[in-house]
Amino acid sequence: MTPDELLELHRSFTASVVRLETLQHYAVPGDDERQRAYREGRPLPPREGKSATVRLIQDAVRAGKAFERIHVVDVPLSDYVRYELDAAYPENVAAGEQVWIVDRAAHPGLENARWDFVLVDAGTPHPAVAWYDYTADGQLTGYRRGSPDDVDGCTATIALARAHALSLADFMTSSFREAQ
Question: How would DSSP label each residue in 37-96?
Answer without folding.
Answer: HHHHTPPPPP-HHHHHHHHHHHHHHHTT-EEEEEEEE-SSPPHHHHHIIIIIHHHHHHHT
